[in-house]
Amino acid sequence: MIVVAGGSGLLGRQVVNDLLLSGERVRVLARDPGRARAVLGDEVDVRAADVREAGLVQVLDGASVVISAVHGVLGGRGDGPLDVDQRGNANLIDAAATVSAGVVLVSVIGAAADSTLELFRAKHAAEQHLAASGAQWTIVRAAPFLETWLDILIQTAGKSGRPMVFGRGELPIPFVSARDVAAVVCRASTDTTLRGRVLEVAGEPLSMTELAHILQAARGWDGTVRHLPRPVLRALAALARPVNPAFARKNQAAAALDTDPWDPSTTDAARVLGRAPLKASDAIGRFAGN
Ligand SMILES: NC(=O)c1ccc[n+]([C@@H]2O[C@H](COP(=O)([O-])OP(=O)(O)OC[C@H]3O[C@@H](n4cnc5c(N)ncnc54)[C@H](OP(=O)(O)O)[C@@H]3O)[C@@H](O)[C@H]2O)c1
């Protein structure tokens, strides 16, 4: 049986769906089981669990593999990456090791101890904890999801048809579909030859402005794309930090996405998927009718 922590999220829902379609037994851990069942369906085995709290060994009973698809980026005070991605993942990994389950950890391309982003430092710490845990493991490091950023561009466009790009939006970013990441996570959870491997999953490099133009073309929107200048992003991150850490993190991440170049050589996506990664137009189809 495969346990999915974060099974109610964008990636987690796709993972649960794919695993069920391939005949696996699945259990989902969610903080609000009612909300999780509303998105996953009543037939899915959902257990109440917060990865930061004690008692995880009981909800992992019978698990062969535990998938962590959680993050704390959107959380507020005391509920951010340090608590969820670092300490919460460590707690989940220790519980998985106690019940002799393997672990598939979803991380980020660029996870590093010296990253400027708290999320990337926390993911690095979780990766280190996993490698030292004694559990069988696979790490899936993903690039930014197409669906996440298309959703942001759609939200910022509102009724104007003019999405807001954070910063200059010129840097190529290897956006990947959450559907491709889910396929790699599912493969990693069942293919024992991938144990002890770090798989990097990236897609077609596109600048944020190009992504916004593809979205506008698909929606029949015209008008120029709007830009929020980098200094405004940085000022918002600094001003919000003491009062709204989640908002500060979002602005800091957007500023980093606009300035920090990606290494295009690092992707295992096509090899693991056996096909080219999905394109932006494939992910836009998910929002058809919005
Ligand atoms: N989105 C991206 O661009 C991107 C890029 C690279 C990597 N990733 C990684 O991919 C994974 C999934 O991301 P996503 O964008 O699909 O996330 P999402 O839609 O925002 O969902 C996050 C999930 O985390 C769960 N969660 C948060 N705090 C939790 C806690 N304390 N205990 C248990 N569950 C908790 C939430 O569950 P409930 O609130 O229902 O309890 C939810 O299911 C994450 O590991 C993320 O870091 C995402």
Secondary-structure map with pairings?
Elements (H helix, E strand, L loop, with lengths): L1 E4 L4 H12 L4 E5 L2 H8 L4 E4 L7 H4 L5 E4 L12 H18 L3 E7 L9 H14 L5 E6 L3 H12 L6 E3 L11 H13 L6 E5 L6 H12 L6 E3 L1 H11 L4 H15 L9 H5 L6 H5 L6
Parallel strand pairs: 1-2, 1-4, 2-3, 4-5, 5-6, 6-8, 7-9
Helix pairs in contact: 1-7, 4-5, 9-10
NADP nicotinamide-adenine-dinucleotide phosphate binds next to helix 1, strand 2, helix 2, helix 4 and strand 5.
Describe it.
By secondary structure, the chain is of the alpha/beta class. Helices cover 44% and strands 14% of the residues. It has twelve helices and nine strands. It has helices at 10-21, 33-40, 56-59, 81-98, 118-131, 146-157, 178-190, 208-219, 230-240, 245-259, 269-273, 280-284, and strands at 2-5, 26-30, 45-48, 65-68, 102-108, 137-142, 164-166, 197-201, 226-228. The strands form two sheets. The protein has a seven-stranded parallel beta sheet, sandwiched between helices. Strands 7-9 form a two-stranded parallel sheet. The longest helix has 18 residues, at 81-98. Residues 5-6, 8-12, 29-32, 35-36, 50-52, 69-72, 74, 84, 88, 106, 108, 142, 144-145, 148 line the site of NADP nicotinamide-adenine-dinucleotide phosphate.
